[in-house]
Design brief:
CATH architecture: Sandwich
Number of helices: 5
Number of domains: 1
Helix content: under 10%
Strand content: 35-45%
CATH class: Mainly Beta
Shape: globular
Order of helices and strands: HHEEEEEEEEEEEEEEEEEEHEHH
Number of strands: 19
Oligomer: single chain
CATH topology: Jelly Rolls
Amino acid sequence: MRVLQFGNMSPRWTSRRRFLALCGASALTALGSSRNPSRSVQASPSPHDTIYREFSGGNLSGWRLALGDGIYAAPDEPPVSIEDIETRHEDVLSELRANVRKRRIMAHNITYFRQRDELALQYTHLFTCHFRLPYMPSVENTEGNGQALDAAVFVWDGIDTRMDWGAAFQWGLNPRERFGELRVNIQEGVHAAGWEPVGYLTPDLEWHTFQIIVNYPLQTASLRIDEQSFPIDLVGIPKRWPATISAGVQVEAISMYPGTTLNGTLHRVQFRDWSWLWMDMKQQRLFLPTVLNTTQGVLRSGAFTSPSFREGMQMETPQPRKSKRLMNHRVPRCLISK
């Protein structure tokens, strides 16, 4: 396989020892066995212990910038544009900024990294990153305030279902409403994904760590922030994108909604030390041997579970809790190939 070099990112085949160093113990705890939640894995290097694909970096240099759909402009303001967002890169971190001109708008910064790969839906994707607020949102703060911080993992299936499959969480940062609330994407019908509260993270100026794991073969997802796990769904969102298969990770910053009475404020969030790993089922059993015994309270099932797919993987898997919202979706053809 030819491996691409992209900016300061380092896609490569990696060893089990390096994988454990990248992910830390939290990866194993997040997917902990229901029989023994504190079980740990000892690294034992082997020339055949490899991850299919790995990307990592100290900052987000080389990622792309896009204007998201969480936008608003007061009646007397011009429409929100790409000029209202930016992402700045320093040696050890990147800072996402939304509403950089402090207009009476809500601006949505999406900073993302994507890879085309026709096999992307056959792998478990593990996205880990550190994040923090460089300022404290408050009702009294008239210069800096936010609406939310988001992060997600998605794979676009433009061949069969024409859906973007993945998992996302949001940290509510508007000091006037549900300050510190954690939400996850849930399916609302076939054609939309909404947000559901699942917990709380106290806003502060400390560094935190999120870890999103999406197991596409088993149609499950998990979310861990610092030392706490949260339920999260695998959702599908229809898109009008090209007929390809591509995977992506993204982080987002949404500035505060000003309504008709408040002034616009700048929102800033910082990210550093990220990694994105792809594992097939064989590698997953080697690197994360507890994943097949995961508690239902952490992993939640997704869209395209089917006996024919499990038979195609030629392995025994636990029966995940099917999502009634999505269980009628057919299995993408690209998933059934061995």
